[in-house]
Amino acid sequence: MLLAEVRNIQGKYIPRKIRLDDHIGNTDGWFIWGGSNFTHSARNVALEETPWGPKLCADLPMINGGSRGRQGMMLSDKIQNNDGRLKFLGP
């Protein structure tokens, strides 16, 4: 679950949440938009602040049990603030 305070067009900050497991999956050790339930296999999940916005990072296992190393994806690529609401833009 991603929790955030997002600003609407009046400038008011509103607490909102979006369930990342509804939009992000693990496909053979890679994050994938349009997937689901990445948290079922991910380890060491964290958000990293970057100059471009929050980055979701985790260790994601491959199908064969191996690892591709730590993976990351920029949440702002597909999740935006739409007048005080978090909106998933689609895969």
TrEMBL record:
Alphabetical list of Pfam families matching this protein: CVNH (PF08881)
Matching SMART domains: CVNH (SM01111)
SUPFAM superfamilies given in the database record: Cyanovirin-N
InterPro entries: Cyanovirin-N, Cyanovirin-N_sf
UniProt protein name: Cyanovirin-N
